[in-house]
Structure formats: structure tokens, C-alpha cells
Amino acid sequence: MTLQSSSRTSFKALPDQQTLIRAVLTNGVAGVGKTVSVQKFTLDWAEGLGNQDVSLVIPLSFRELNLIKGEQYSLLRLLHVFHPTLQKVTAEQLAGCKVLLIFDGLDESRLSLDFRNNEVVSDVSQQSSVNVLLTNLIRGKLLPSALVWITSRPAAANQIPPECVDRVTEVRGFTDAQKEEYFRRRSSDEDLSSRIISQIKSSRSLHIMCMIPVFCWITAAVLDHMLTTDQRGELPQTLTDMYSHFLLVQTKRKKQKYEEGHETSPQQLTEADRELLLKLGRLAYEHLEKGDIMFYQEDLQRCGLGVTEALVHSGVCTEIFKRESVIFQKTVYCFVHLSIQEFLAAVYLLHCYTSRDTEVLKDFLQGDWDDDNDSRDQDYPSLDVFLKRAMEKSLRSRNGHLDLFVRSLHGLSLESNQSLLGGLLGRTDNRPETIQRAISNLKKMRSDEDSDERSLNILHCLTEMKDHSVHQEITEFLKSENKSEKRLSVKRCPAPAYRLEMSEEVLDELDLEKSKTSEEGRRRLTPAVRNCRKAVIPDSGFLDWEVVASALKSDPSNLRELELGVDLQDSEVEQLSSGLKSPNCRLKTLRLRSCSLSEISCSALISALKSNIHLRELDLSSNALQDSGELLRDLLESPDCRLETLSLRWCSLSEISCSALASALKSNIHLRELDLSENALQDSGELLRDLLESPDCRLETLRIRGGETITAKIQKKSDSGLQKVLDEHRLSLRRRCERVTEGTDKSETLLNSIFTELYITQGQSEEVNTQHEVRQLETASKKKPLHDTPIKCQDIFKASPDQQTPIRAVLTNGVAGVGKTFSVQKFTLDWAEGLGNQDVSLVIPLSFRELNLIKGEQYSLLRLLHVFHPTLQKVTAEQLAVCKVLLIFDGLDESRLSLDFRNNEVVSDVSQQSSVNVLLTNLIRGKLLPSALVWITSRPAAANQIPPECVDRVTEVRGFTDAQKEEYFRRRSSDEDLSSRIISHIKSSRSLHIMCMIPVFCWITAAVLDHMLTTDQRGELPQTLTDVYSHFLLVQTQRKKQKYEEGHETSPQQLTEADRELLLKLGRLAFEHLEKGNIMFYQEDLQRCGLDVTEALVHSGVCTEIFKRESVIFQKTVYCFVHLSVQEFLAAVYLLHCYTNRDTAVLKDFLKRDWPYENSKNRDQDYPSLDVFLKGAMKKSLQSRNGHLDLFVRFLHGLSLESNQRLLGGLLGRTDNRPETIQRAINNLKKMRSDEVSPGRSINILYCLTDMKDLSVNQEITEFLKSGNRSKELSMIHCSALADMLQMSEEVLDEFDLKKYKTSAEGKLRLIPAVRNCRKAKLTDCKLSEAECEVVASALKSDPSHLRDLDLSHNALEDSGVERLSSGLKSPNCRLETLRLESCSLSEISCSVLASALKSNPSHLRDLNLSLNDLQDSGVELLRDLLESPDCRLETLRLSCCRLSEISCSALISALKSNIHLRELDLSLNALQDSDEKLLRDLLESPDCRLETLRIRKETIRAKIQKTCVSDVEQEVKTDTKAPESFSPEHTTESSYRFRCPGSGAFQCASTGLVFVMAQEAELLYRTVPWDESLLQSAGKQAAGPLFDVKSSDEAAVCQLRLPHSETEDALLLDGLLSVVHITEEGLSILEPLEITHTHVVVKVPHLSLYGLVCDILKRVLFLRIKGQVLLFLQPPGREDQILDVFLLQKNVPKEVVKQQGRAVHIKIPRDCELELYKGYSVHCDPEGFHIQPERQKFDSSFGEDYNPTFQVFVKTGTERMDLKVKDQDGNVVWNCLVPLEESRVPSESRVPSESRVLSESRVPADQRLLSVRTEFIQRVSPTILNDLLDKLFESEVISESEMTSARTKPQNAGAREVVDVVRNKGAAASRVLINALRELDPYLYEELNLS
Questions:
Q1: Nearest to residue 1399, comparing CAs of 1373, 1419, 1369, 1421?
Q2: pTM higher than 0.85, yes or no?
Q3: H or E segment at 223?
Q4: Which parts of the sequence belong to the NACHT domain (predicted)?
């Protein structure tokens, strides 16, 4: 839900707010979520998550307070009664607390809050009426230190005087996005959700009502039922329709629930149903008349309703609370939402009308009963008259409480709803003529005395009666060009006002003087002021000034200029002033000429303006201000006043006023212009003249006497000069950015109305872009958002929490059309509108398209800014230096500049001239204007022009996610059904769906499908890219005709000769520039292709003029196609046309060496057949290094089909596309060789087949994969298809072994791209070239990289191939653990590159095989550096047969002395000297060397001594059934645990249950941290244990973690229930367990960070029963009783709960039990009579930082023991224990002498207690604690120095044994010192040993 102010921060003052916030009033319509907000605030406070500065939160609802209406209470007693837990709070304690009192539901109050009553209550013990208590609390007289929060519906909020409230907030309910989220989350059926959303959007009234969460539930209940059952007839369109169906659905549910009958048609209302509903209707009606929305049992009985009757209709009337307070057992009822009460009230009254219940009707209509009766029966009104009278009564209601009721009455009068409700309403005279009279009555209805807002309900009633004529007329009026000439009747005015006010587009000007209507009509148009920038309101009699004030208060307020020409009363100025002082007010100009302002009015106005920092111009001319100059002086002297122009003509200003103004001007630094003409100034005029010439006064222009204008002769300093320039610049940018063109040149759209947030990620894929961008989209589409760091466009310069340095330069990448420029435009617009990045003073967008125009010219930075942004021409170098500037360089890929960062020419002065290239490189490097921020956008291929060291952050615009694609199509069209059909079609085609990541392609697709689905188009919808673009060309041509030729709409297939000629010219332009690699061009380029500028632009959807510079120095216009793909398509159209027209010059130039062809099958030997031509084009595209011709050649193949040629009607000419020719082209593609290109590039062959609509390869590969038979021989094209399928699969392949596939050598190479999506890849002996190595490298660079094991053995890798591979190995994304490069012909250069790469990223590699490579000595020297690196984790190194010499051996021996990880070294088949072998053998036996296995010659030697190694430890732990060694960790001041692990083995933490499997000695530091629930939910997981943050002094020391779980044996049988999440800076990953024991989940540790146990959300539902624990803590005693805290927790919640209980004593009792998640539990005790709170509590999974008691038992002091039970909601006992209290009781500290507070001594002697825990103490005391204990014992003279030294020199356990025995033998006193020292140093072990 949307709140204007987050409820958690409601009491936090804004940065610029000086006063504290004491009282908050929160408004919101019924059901919008106010009570939920209160509940969430209270829960967060209670759980310690917010507002912890508040000591005591006390929620009270008016529903409860109504129960003691009229009784006498003190505040203290009231709190004791409503919150029994506070019964012991005294008046003194209450005064010392920071209290928050929450009064929820003021609109439900039956109390009379009289703030005029001056009775003061200031003592919390003083009794008074509840009314008086509340008014004193709210006014701050009673408990003035308390905070007060009141919630209310808007109609009741005015009961609280404004002066009593410091902040007003509003709960707005669901945003549009949240509405959709609600419906989608409510149902797992995506299609059903979409249909429901579609239906809601089709009705404006339903869509608006869905802001209310309860209405969303009502709507979902109805539509879900209607769409999933066989319901006929139209879906509900109006509110009345919806509620009529809702009544039937709820009745049906009641029957299913209580009557267990067969499902019947919902229309079958029985007599019993009708009787019950009418009783509920009477209840609703009678309470609506009184204004009540809740009622009690006696109210139900008065209407003949039994409580059970009401509650079986639980969807309509629900028991909303039962107080547990002992003094009242009164239950309160209400309808689930006010609108249901209003609807049922209307049902009841219409039933009374049809039943002629005159008593009810007379009581309702009162004096209107007998008036104006047109019916035949003169004693009874006709239906139209009855409705008219009801409408008139509702309009007289001041707060509109009958509006929805009367809407429902009108809707229920229709025959459709009456038949739906099956006899419930009776029969009415609803003949067409009667209904028409009722409609006419509404249209003629006057509401002169009513608010403009209220008269809108007449329109809503017409909607309910399904009469849309007024709306249609107003729509035509607003569309018409001559609005000022059309007269608007009074009755029509509310409709356009409403439409204008609710429009998404802000009106530039609303001038009521120009409106052709009466004064009353102008008044009714006034609400439109809320949605305009400038409003002119003439003298038009009575105006609703609250409307004008609300326009200034609204958030956001759009009003910038307000001109009033009316006589203003003091009360009206007061209302206006309330808007002017609102923090939302952004008014810059206020004109109040001739408004008859009194002194009181002037005072109120000036008071409001003093706090307004936005006003720049104020005109109070022609008002008799006289001595009000004193007030004006206060305004001008206010530090917040920013007035620049003040007009006071004809204001009868006195001498005193002028003196006051002159005084103010001496200190005011902003006012520039003052108009005092037509005032009798006398001598003070001279005073002002002198002031004008003073250098201290900033005034520049003064008008006095007869309009004489005097300008200052001296130059004035103008601090506001720069600000004025910046304001103008903002305005200029806003105008430039607020509208955008979606493809077509003229149809501009508001950016904010269509902007869909793009998916922008921090960082980018490191893969080298050797593929066409469409292919890059394919790869990106597979990425899960989980692996990315999303970042909002507005936040790209905000450093992340872990980033220390500020961000100066940002590079944003993204494929063409993905939305980079839109993002820049949105960022700039938000800045210009003051909505974001306001710390930046100046945003300067510059595009490379523009900068290309001054290529080669000399500019200074200052002049460049002046030229491209004329609004900045007055900005000086000095001013630029003090501004925080952001320079945006958009479109680096379009640059024709040469950015040479190796050029060392430095430019550091903004006035220094240089070439544009040099200026830009200096700006980007930070040499020029180093304080400026820089943002560069680029397509990926061009981004590498910027050196990485110049960039602080790289982001990538990924375009639309799947959800954002849908949002785009839904926002683009108001026809929800059309949107759904478009979305459905796109999802059916993989290529279209992926392309729709690009916003421009979404627009292209929408244009095509919108046209085809809304016109009489036959044939199938486009399936391929070629289909879409062919249709797009036709749609754009047709639009051009409609726009410029004004002809009749023709079939889109009818391309005229002129169309064809123009499109071919555009095609030539596209083709020639595609060949050159250009995507933009100038007028001369157009002319070269025979194109006139006008010709190009009438085809504005294809080629658009994308900007015209307003700069005076160039008038050169730049053009480009709306998207690169359109250029590629037109280029293909042109080339195919050239082929069919035998334009051999173009073809020869394109195909070059492949021309002419030798083709015996051709009759004409000099010209190729179509299949041969396409084959040549395909070969050329494959030769392109970056794939820039891939999409072009796809289009060529698609256009060769007869279907597309026919579609384009002669544009392409006639080709030989007989079936046999097309089949030959398809066969050519299938046989196409691509030996010399990257395997990834050959995928495009497959796409060409798709565009030729040949799906045979895909079908064959699908069957191949399903069969599981790998013996089938695969062709090359099959291999391309298989590689594509494998790498795009959602499932990661465990192993990819090329040898398992039966195919040719080239076929195997084409399979290699599948390596990107596997964990283990075997690519042995397959003749890998540099291109294939590039693909493997990209697999290592990809994010995430799945590859863990890579075997490239027996490939002759050249240096270039190894260099490519190394680029992947050094990537931070690389997680490779095993690399085999056996017999790869590695040279010295290769070895150097490889070692360098591995050294830069060595932490993951464990196994490296370089055998059978001629490494020689130099290669091994490099490997030594790798082995000596502290980050190297290699465990196995194989260097068999590598021609190693004595030098190599020495290098390896040297490295092995310091390397602690290498376990196996293979040096076999190397000519080693005997001396070398001896050194290696000796090293193997050294305890300092970790090597265990050595291979030399043909011998395998294993170390004779025991070595500690990671793999052995893991194996030992796995096979050893012995329990892990338990330890008690040391507790640090940062709430962390510390443990010094003595060596290898398994160690279990006694506090957390966490087990560490260690390889070696290390120090561990770990703690629990809060979960990020949103991160888990996105992965479909929920927490099943604490989240641990683990650190180690040596990361490699930790092999495994075992996380404790709380699952039952049955639950563990469910595969996949539990897993472990590993959270790093890169995101969240799921680790599959190595093993799940009955207590722990075991995982291998890749590297240390955050680890936590999670369960699958869906599988959790299958097993809700878990192992639980009951923990008891006894708080210190009070005077009469003490509190026993009872915790119900999951078994694996850490013992840190103990730590949080302060001085409470942990009672050691059996704690294990089984609990069921989400089930209710209660606590019971014997003896009875103790107060237990709460009575029942739901058990929930919780692993937070803080744990609060589930229950509290108030135990009488002196109780020795109690029998405690925990029962579930079914009454079953799940845990029972006899709890000893006397032994656990600790005296209250206040009563114990300080010297006795060390320890509550047990009756058992201390030395005997030590003896009882001796063994456990020895095993569990940590080395650190033991050392500290020795120090304490020595300092206390319990042990001698020699005893201390002796214990320290012994091993851990032996030392602990010696200490405990020595101390115990010295007696009880010595033992007591040890126990007390342990209590101080390790309270957790002390508690665990039960030494207390």
C-alpha cells in the first residue's frame, strides 16, 4: 500500500523541520489499510524493528472506547483496563516513559469530542469522562510528553482541530502495480489473473475502487467465481453489478460451508436467503442513516438477526473483535467493508419501495415524500421520482455519506440487476420510459448549494444506470479544437472538470475566464485546477476555496502560477493560505489583483508566504493595504523568502509602509523588481531612490509615482543570476525531455505516461561481443535476476553500502534500442522536475550524434556548453567551477570522434581551447573539471574505447524483464483483451519473446499486432522476425497514407509505385550505411541515395529526424532509423531487389571474390540462382568478426519466401522461389561449413532456417534428446541446434563430453558453445582453434559461470588460443576447479600467459594438469610464482613428461616449502638428476611440507608420516561415527562468537549447534545476522535456520559446515525440502547438501561468507510439523509477582536467546517437543489462577536477531513449583513439565547488598559442584577462556606462578584437567573463585554447566 509517509517514520521530523512531531493524523478511505498500518507499526515496535526510542506503545480503538461512553475514568485506569499487562504501571512510571497512544478509527467513534470545552485534565490519575480525557490528550494538556496517532476516514478527520496536529498523512491503498500484484499472487492461474486484471481495467470505476485492498478481495471473489464456473452473460461493469454478484457468491459459499448441499446456480436465492439478506439490509440501512459502521448484539436482535445467522454470512458480516478484558465481554460487529453496508442498505430501501413500506420511505425522504409526484397512483411516487428524491437527499449530505448508497439505488433500479438478485428486490416499474425519465432527472439535477466534488456523484449514478452519453459528449468536447467557442451548460461542467483533473497529462493553463459558461459553470470547472500548471480564476461569485487550497497541498502539486480576480473574504484567504504554507506547494507566481484584501487577510497571507521558499513573483496591486507594509517587511526579511518581483500598485500605501519596505530591502538579497507606482509616497520615494543606488541593496528596478521606471545605475551583484540561469536550464530540459516519440515523428507521448522501468544491472557480462546483438539478447534472456545486482536509473551515482569511494564516472552498456537514451531522458526529466538527484546543480546531456557535427574543430569546454545549451550562455568559468555538474555523453557507439586515451595532452582549464576529442578524454579521465560527474552510454561493441581505470561503475541496461514486457503492452493499450492477445502471441514465439527485451521492438511488435488484431486482417499472425518487419513496413506505409494523403483506408498490401520507389531509396541508404558500419547519417547521405528530406520523414515510423539543434552555429540535422534492426531489414529488402533486378554492380561489390559463380544448373551461367545467391550472402556474414550482418542475412532468407514477397507486393521483384529452389537453399544452410568462424556464430545458420520456416532440425534434435540414444550421427546443422538447445536450457548439464556425440570434426566444433551451460566439459583432441578457445573463455567469464572441470587435452593450442583461454581464467566470474591441458603444445609464451592468469585468480583451482608439454625451465619458474602465491589453492599438479631440468626441480622445491595446499605432484617421465630426486624425497617426508604423493620416473611415492590435508579430513569426518568435539565459544563485544580451532577435525559450537569441519588450525569468528526475506522469496525459499556470517583467519581451513536443522524423520524423507543458501556480494546461490543427518545439513564450503539453512516454500506446506523446544526464563521478582517468560522455538534456534534475557534466570528443564507451523498454541498451569498472556498464539517460523517471549505467566511470589503444559488449538498436550521455581529464583537486585551480587550461592559446596562438571569443563572450555581463567586465579592468589605456567605448557585438555583439579583440591573458597571467574568470562558455559 502507498502511504504519503511511511508509518514507521510517521513521527520522524523531516531534515528541514525544526519542531518535534507530537500528534499525527492519518486519513484514508474505508478499507484502505489504516488499521493494518497501525498493526504493522505496533508489531515492528514489539519485535524491536522500529521506533525503539518509544518506551510504550498503547493501541486503543474507538470501537473499544465506545463501550465506556459516558463513564468516568482516569487515564491510568483506562490503560489498566484495556491493557491488563500494564496494571502495575504507576503514574510516576508512566510520566517517565516515552509513550505513544494510538487511537484507531475516529470515524467509528460514538464519543463527542468537544475541543471547545475548556475543562482541563492534566493528571493521569484524575477521573473524567472519556471524551474529556481524549481531548486533553490530543491537545497535549494530559501527559504532554506522549505521542498521539489518530486514524480516521476523511469525513470524520475534521473533528480534530488543525492546531492540534503536527503532521497529516494519508493511506492511499494499492498503486496500479500493487493491484496487479495482488491479483497475480492470489491465483496460481496466470491466465485467470490476466483476465481479471483485464476486466478491472476495462471499467474505470472498478479500477479506481481497487485501490482499496478489501475491494480487490471482493472483485477477485466475484470474477474468480464467474470465470471458473459456467457463468453466462457479461462480466460486471459497474459497482452495482459487482456487489450484486458478490452477494450471490457469498450466499453460495455459505451453502457449501454450512448446508453441504450440491452446488447450485448462484441465482437460486431461496426464501431463507432473501429473508436473511433483508435483515442484514435493514441493519445496514438503519446504521447508515445514523452514520454508524459498527454495532452490537442488541442491534442485530433489533433487526431480528441471530448472531449465528449473521456470522454464517461471514463474507458480508463478520465478528471483528472480542475483548479479552475482564470488565466487558461485549462483542462488536461490522460489515467487512463500508461499501457492502451501503449496498445492502440500498437493497433494503429498494425492497421497501417495491413492497410499499411507506413508513420507512417517509422516514427516509421526510419532507420530500408528497412533493412532485408524477405517478398514476398519487399516493405513491413512481420509480424515477423516488430516485430523484433520494438523489436530492444525498446531495444535501455535507460529507457525502449517502453517495455510494444512492449510486447503488440507481444501479439496482435496472432490470438486469433485479433479475440477477432473483426476487430479493421485488418488482419495480423499470420500463425503458421510466428509466429514461430517471436518467433525464439526473442530467437536469441542480446542486447549487453543494460542493463541486459532490455533484460528480450525479455522473457516477448515470454510469451505474449504464448511460454514457454525457461522457461521450465531453470526450468529443475535449477533443475538439475550438473549446472556447462551444458553450458548456452548468450540468455539463463537472464532467470535463473531472476528466481534466483525473488526466495523466498535466494541463499547461486553465483560464476560467475563457470558458464559455455561466458563473455556476465556472465554479464547477474549478476542480480541474488540481491538474494544471497555471490557473486564472476570474470573479465568478462563490468558489469552493478548499478546492484551490487542495491543489496547492496535493502531492505532487502541479500548480506553478495562480491568478485570482475575485473579492476574497477573510475566511477564503485563510483557506488559500493553508495551501500556500503546505510543504507540497511549489507556486512560483501569485497574482491577487483587486481582491479586496483586508488587514486580517493580508496578515494570514504574509504568514503563509513567509515559509514558502518557491514563490518568485507576488502581485498584490489594487488592494487597500495602507499600513500593511509592516507585514510585507516581515515577509521580505524572512530568510526563506525568495521573492524576485513584488507589485504593489494602487495599494494606498502609507509613509509607514514605505519606510518598512525600505528597511527590509537593506537586508533582502533576492528582490530585483519593486512596483510602487500609483501610491502617494511623498518623501519616502526619495528614500527608495537612494536605496536603489546603494551597493548593499540588490534591487535593480523600481517603479514609483506615475509609473516612472527607475533602473539602478550601478552594477549589482546577483547571487540569484546563476540560479535564474539554472532554473531556465531546468525548464529547457523539462520541455525537451517530457515528451518522446515512439517511432513516429509527430505522435509525441508524455515520457512519464509510457516509461516502464528498465532492468539495469550493476556490472556487465565480460564476454567479448563477437556476436550480433540479437544473439547477445538470447544469452541475456537466460540470465536469472537472482545473479544480477539490479540498480535503479536514478541511483547510478549512489555508492553501494560496501563502496568506500564516491562514484565519479559511470559507463552504461546495452544493445541498440534497449532503452539507454530513454533512461538518460528519464533521469534528466526527473532532475529537471525536482524529483531526483537534487544534489546535482547542473545536468548537461550531450549526444555523440551532436558532437560529431563539430569533429575536427577547436572548442573550450565552456564554449561547447554555451553552443549546445544556449540557456547556459551566461554561465562563467568561475560559476561552473562551484557547481556540481553531471555531463551525460549518450551514444558512444555513434561517435565519429577518435578518443585517444594514450594522448597525454592535458586540458585542465574550462576556458582552454582544444579539439573535441581531447576535451572528452580529459573530462573522462578527470583532468578537466575533476569535480564533474560523467555518464557515458554505449552499445557493447564500442564500450571498450573507455579504459577501465577511468570508470568507477559499469552498468548494463538489459531492457525489459518478462514482467516489464507485459507491463509495457498493458500500459500501451486501454483494451486489456487486446493486450492479453498480443502478450499471448509473443510468448508463443521464442524469437519474438526474446526480441521484446528491447523496448523499440515492443513498439514495432505492438504496432503490427495492434493493427492486425483490430482490422479485418486474414491469415496467420507473424511468427518470425521477417514476418514482423514485413508487416511493420506495410503498417507504416498505411499510416503515412492516412496522415499525408488523406485517402480512404486501403488494404495494407496495396503498395503503390511511389511507395516502392521511396522504400527502395530508404533501402539503399540502409544497405550502404550497414556496409560501412554507420547507424546515422546526414542530409547529403540522403541526397546521395536520391532521397528528399520530406520523403524520408513522411515515412517517419521507419526513418525519423531524431533531433534538430537549436544552436545558432549549425543547422545540420541528423537522421537514423528508429532501430538498427529496421535498417538491417530495409538493407535486405534493397539487396534482394537488386538481385531480382540483376543489378550486378551492387551484387559484385557485396559478394566480392564469390562472384561470378560456376553453376551448371543455371541456364544463365553469368547469374546465380536464388539458393546460390543466398549461400554467398551467408558465407559473407559468417566472415564478419562481430556478426554485424547476421540479422541482415536472416532477413534475406526470410524475404526469399513467397509469403513475404507477396505481402510486400512487388517491392522485391520476382524471384525463382519455387519449392525446389527454396529446398536447395534450406539444404545449403544445413550443409554450410563454418570452419574459420567462431562456433557461436554458426548458430545464425539455425536462425536463418527458422526465418525460412523450416523447423525440421529443431524437431529432430528434440527427438534426439528425448530418445537418450547418443549413437545417432549428427549433421553440422544438428550440432548447431543441439548446442543452442543445451546452452539455452534452464537445467545446467553435469557433463559435456564431445566424444560421446557421433558427428564430423566440424560438427564437434559447432557443439562447443554448449560448454557455457555445463559443470564439466571434455573437449579433448578436437582441433580447437582460437575461435573455439574464445567460446570456452566466454563460458568462464559468464555470470554465473557453471564450469568447474575443463579438459582440453590433446589440442594443439597456439599462443593466441591460450591467450583467449587465459582471459577467461582471470575473470572474477571464473570458478574452475580442475583444468587439464595435457599435450597442448604449450610454448614458453603460452605458459607465461597461463601462469599469469592463474596467479591473478587462483583461489578456486584445485587440480592442474600440464603434462606432455615442453615447459622447460622458464615455464616452471612461472609456475613457482603461482605456487608461492598466498591465494593459490592447488592440491594436485601434474607435470609428467615436460622436459624439466635441475633448475625446474629447484624452483618447485623452493615453492613447496611455503605452499600448504599441494598434496600431489607428478614429475614422472622427466630427466631428473639423482640429487633432485633425493631433495624431493626428503621434502615429502618433511612435516613442514604438506605434499603426500610424489610421482618421479615411473614410481609413485607416498609420505610415510601422517600429513593433515583437506581431503583426508573430509574423508575421516565422513567415515568417523564419533560425535564432533563440543566447544563453548568466546563472546566478543560485537555479539560475535570466537573460537580458536586447535587443528583438524569436527568441532560443534555449544551455543549455536553449528559444526565446523576443519583442515588445520585457525581462528573462527562467526555470528547470526538477519535474513533478507525478499531475497529468499525471489528464490522460492524460506528460512529454516539462522543465517550465519562466518569468517576465518585462514579461509582454506574450513572444509565443511554442518548446519543444525529442526526437521522430523518424516520430513527428511521428502527430497529437496532442505538446502543451504550461500550469500555473497554477487548474490544468492543454492548449495545442494552433501548429506542430511537426523540433526544437521552438511555442505562443502566454496568460500566463507553468509550461510543459512532454507526450505522449499511449496514443499514446506507438505510437512509443517517440526522439532521444537520450550525455553523458560524467570524474571527477577517484583513486589507481588514475577514473570515467567515462555518461548516456543524451533529446535535449531541458537542459545543466544539466553543472552537476550538480561537478569532473567534460565530454568533448566526438558525442552524438546514437536510443534506445527502456523498452528495455534496456549499455555496452561497448575495451580491455576495465574494470569497468562496472550491466551493463544500462532506458532511461526522465526530466525531473527531478537526473540520475544511467546507467552508470559504472571507467577505469585513464593510459588515453589508449577505444572506447566503447552496445548495445541485442538486441546492436545504437546509438552508438559513440572517447573521448579524456588531453586531458580534470584533475589531482586535492589534488595541484595552489592558485595553479594556476584553469585547466588547454591547450597551445594563449590568444590563439589566443580567435581560434578569436571569432565564437561575439561572438554568444553576454550583455550582463550582457559588462559584468562589462569590469569584470574593467579591474580586472586588461588594458584601459584609455577602452577599457572605448568597448565599453560600442557595440551588443551590436559591443561584444563590440571587447573580444575588443582583448584578443587584447594577447597570450596578457591573453587568459588574459579566459578565466579568463569561466570564473568564465559556466562554461556557457566549456564550450560549449571554452576548457578
A1: 1369
A2: no
A3: helix 213-228
A4: 22-156, 808-942
